[in-house]
Predict the 3D structure of the following.
Amino acid sequence: MKTLDWNTLFGERARRIQASTIRELLKLTQRPGVISFAGGLPAPELFPKGLAAEKAAAILRDKGEVALQYGPTEGYFPLRAWVAEWLGLSPEEVLITTGSQQALDLLGKVFLDEGSPLLLEAPSYMGAIQAFRPYGPRFLTVPAGEEGPDLEALEEALKGERPRFLYLIPSFQNPSGGLMPLPARKRLLEMAMARGLVVVEDDAYRELYFGESRLPSLFELAREAGYPGVIYLSSFSKILAPGLRVAFVAAHPEAILKLTQAKQGADLHSPVLNQMLVHALVQEGFPERLALIRQTYREKAEAMLSALDREMPAGVRYTRPKGGMFVWMTLPEGLSAERLFQRAIEENVAFVPGSPFFAEGGGENTLRLSYATMDRARIEEGVRRLGRALKGLLALV
Ligand SMILES: Cc1ncc(COP(=O)(O)O)c(CN[C@@H](CCCC(=O)O)C(=O)O)c1O
């Protein structure tokens, strides 16, 4: 059998395509007995399985010829209209995508050329870095903390550069858990408006707030200010079911049109049955569902934080999130999260080492813990195991 060296056959862009650390780790965490804090996998107990089974059967029975046929690239219109109304927009400002992950890839395809400056936070969502990297951007980063990006550093970065866009996650940032306060949001918007800077706001965790109410998105603030340059992403993954792969982009109709054209070349349209199912599921008890989800993650976060407070040795720092799915941990300087990961896996506990969240490198002593998937007992046991692994590593230094 003749062998081929595929690496010589792939295109130049393929050399920039790297595996997703989260996806690779998830394979590892399938091992029985492993308690995984790795993937931001929503709590399976929250999936509306019974209602989904009932609605899917009805859709196929009563509207099977629509559900099983090709559909419009923009999305199943009743769902687009529902999303538009939910956001206070017109349907022409909404595009349904196959997860926000596809929206990130389409944004790279539409906005980025080889060497284009692209501004994002450090750390930032590694799935976005993975989506953008094949288009060959020149990454520029600003530090992100518990209150969002460092606005002084942002101002400095914008002095000498015209980035194609700024990508950020203002609410419950992945991985750092940061929540941008309202004044910072307004100041960032002023900076964007003054420069005509396009801002991509990834609001995947918009509904997962633990406080009384949701802060206005940059997108909402921009509409109030009459600025069309914010492109808004959110998803049904964290509020319904990630396996359905249904999300949306909200933006100026001209941006939506170009992203739609790019989507035609990617997948023609998102699965019609899944879109119809999402549309059916949001018709019944949606506000109550959101309240249950917030309560569930608030309790899981509290379980993890109280376990960390008990089990973590001195010198280990971690965030206390006000929403979202993640705790961001910083080990004492010089300690490697990758080395900790090796010891943790031996203790049957997993997390995501932090460095893949840094587009320009760094973060070797950081790691991300997701409390979303496990129940309280496994969160407590997993943190005990993590504590054992950490104390073992500290004993070596
Ligand atoms: C900021 C942000 N933007 C987009 C996504 C992807 O959401 P979709 O499910 O594609 O709508 C995510 C989902 N990230 C999770 C899920 C990744 C799950 C996986 O790769 O299996 C994580 O960071 O673990 C996100 O956090």
Q: What stands out?
A: The chain has 14 helices and 14 strands. Residues 11-40+287-396 form a domain with the Aspartate Aminotransferase, domain 1 fold (CATH 3.90.1150.10). The longest helix spans residues 286-311. The radius of gyration is 21 Å.
